[in-house]
Write a structure and sequence with these properties.
By secondary structure, this protein is mainly beta. The protein folds into two domains: 191 residues, Single-stranded right-handed beta-helix, Pectin lyase-like (Pectate Lyase C-like, 3 Solenoid), CATH 2.160.20.10; 248 residues. The chain is 8% helix and 41% strand. The protein is elongated and about 80 Å long.
Length: 505
């Protein structure tokens, strides 16, 4: 009996010392002199947890309904079985708010961490004046190695007052940084989901990583999904230095027209990335002075797949596919892009001149891109609101070189006004079984058009019901709520059936 009693005490003691700790913060009733180990003995300020290194299974909880001012800086070493959790507690339904200082480069900083979940917080970082490089949430991995399973869930980031100029450092709602000289560092299985990015200057979610192909150490298996981006004037979602990224069910809308005339931006696009999948997203109301497309397959990228997306009412067109021919050896160019089963309605409505006039083609191909497939998309260009608006369907132009081997196959090209194809000096363009509805100038030579029944089908099923396309093509969309906002996503089965019927003999 004495033996078993001693064993019980030993086991109890071992369990106590290994049990994960939970820390509590309460901005109203807390005290930094407390232990922080219960709701009744909570800490008060963010300063108390500065530099806190959280361990496997530990939690840091913020009381709901409270406002915390300053900067939250955290490192964590969780495990796959027991991740570190930063979350909330309390009976109120209002998430706690963290507000950065006037000079804060970031309000929340997650540094060199493993297996960490940050969720159910609201982050604000406005300051008195715009600050170049300012972000709401900065997740950083530097001289660390591989950071695994970082998850950002149900976080609101709003009112980040960064610079509107990219070359000054811009600004962002969420900034993901990986780098290092002594130890190459990257993320594996990073997830950003169910977040709301609101009124952030300049960008919403953007990376800073290894872009040089001579020293490329890409983040692996990133997922960006179910996020709502609104009133962000610049770029929406831009992975940089990533491989095998999935971007789906995100919405960006109502971008304010406040960027300087020198600035280019677009909705969702990768840079220096391989094997990116962009699908089931909606981008509308982008008003950047340059570009302003819904989607983009940018240079220094290979095998970008843009499919089942909805683009509408953007100053630019549906998509940009580009390559900087003068980039040099740090870039692999742009090869193997696939653009398929996307819907564009009412894009290309830029109302004012920019660097190349009123330039806003439905599809823009720039520079020496190679082996691009543009297949089974609907480009529905409505009547111009003014005579000066550009109404080009496809432009393939110069950026230190011209495109080669671009295939346009079984797309619907509709225009309410006279439209044109401007292929300039691009080579080996193939137009195969496309449906041309409306009047076009410079229709490509050696163009194999679809049978006339396809044109009549589109006129009957779409134009006779609703010439604008919004109501008639809604049958190809499905509604899903993202952050209480009703969003329209392309339905995979419906659009595939539509094209099967459209192209039937």
């Amino acid at each position: 009996m004495r033996y078993y009693g001693i064993l019980f005490v030993i086991l109890l003691f071992t369990g106590c010392i290994s049990s994960p700790v939970t820390y509590y913060l309460d901005a109203t009733n807390g005290d930094d002199g407390n232990s922080g180990l219960s709701a009744e003995s909570a800490w008060k300020t963010l300063e108390r947890v500065k530099g806190l290194n959280l361990k496997s299974g530990e939690r840091l909880l913020f009381k709901r309904g409270e406002v915390f001012r300053g900067e939250l800086s955290i490192s964590a070493e969780g495990s796959l079985e027991n991740p570190v959790i930063i979350d909330t507690y309390g009976e109120l339904k209002v998430n706690p708010i963290i507000i950065g200082n006037d000079s804060s480069a970031h309000a929340v900083h997650i540094f060199n961490s493993n297996y960490l979940t940050l969720q159910n917080l609201e982050i604000v970082n406005h300051g008195n004046t715009p600050l170049p490089g300012r972000s709401g949430l900065k997740v950083e991995c530097y001289d660390y190695g591989v950071s695994h399973n970082i998850r950002i869930n149900n976080v609101t980031v709003r009112d980040v007052n960064g610079s509107l100029v990219k070359e000054e450092g811009g600004g962002s709602g969420i900034l993901i940084v990986n780098g290092g000289d002594s130890i190459l560092s990257r993320y594996e299985n990073l997830i950003i989901e169910n977040c709301h990015i609101l009124r952030c200057s300049r960008n919403a979610i953007i990376w800073s990583g290894y872009y040089d192909r001579r020293n490329w150490f890409p983040n692996k298996h990133t997922i960006i999904r179910n996020n709502l981006i609104e009133q962000v004037p610049g770029d929406g979602i831009v992975p940089i230095g990533c491989d095998s990224t999935l971007i789906e069910y995100n919405v960006m809308f109502d971008s304010p027209d406040i960027l300087p005339m020198t600035e280019a931006a677009a909705g969702i696009w990768p840079w220096s990335c391989d094997n990116t999948i962009i699908q089931f997203n909606e981008v509308s109301g982008h008003k950047a002075p340059w570009d302003a497309q819904g989607f983009d397959s940018d240079y220094n990228c290979r095998n970008t797949l843009i499919q089942y997306n909805y683009s509408h009412d953007n100053y630019g067109g549906m998509v940009l596919v580009c390559d900087n021919g003068g980039a040099g050896s740090y870039s692999c160019g742009n090869t193997g892009s696939i653009i398929r089963y996307n819907i564009s309605i009412g894009d290309g409505i830029r109302p004012k001149r920019t660097r190349q006039g009123m330039f806003s083609p439905g599809i823009h191909i720039a520079g020496p891109v190679r082996n691009t497939l543009i297949e089974r998309n609907i480009i529905h260009l409505n009547q111009k609101m003014s005579k000066d608006i550009d109404r080009t369907m496809v432009t393939s132009d110069f950026w230190d070189g011209y495109a080669d081997s671009t295939c346009f196959r079984q797309n619907v090209f509709y225009t309410a006004d006279v439209s044109r194809f401007d292929l300039t000096h691009s080579t080996n363009n193939l137009f195969d079984e496309n449906i041309f509805v409306g009047k076009f100038e410079n229709q490509p030579e050696k163009c194999i058009a679809s049978n006339n029944n396809s044109k009549l089908f589109y006129q009957k099923i779409v134009l006779e019901r609703d010439s604008s396309g919004y109501r008639a093509l809604r049958d190809l969309l499905t509604v899903k709520e993202i952050q209480d906002y009703k969003c329209n996503f392309v339905d995979k089965e419906r659009i595939e059936r539509f094209f099967t019927s459209l192209l039937a003999d």
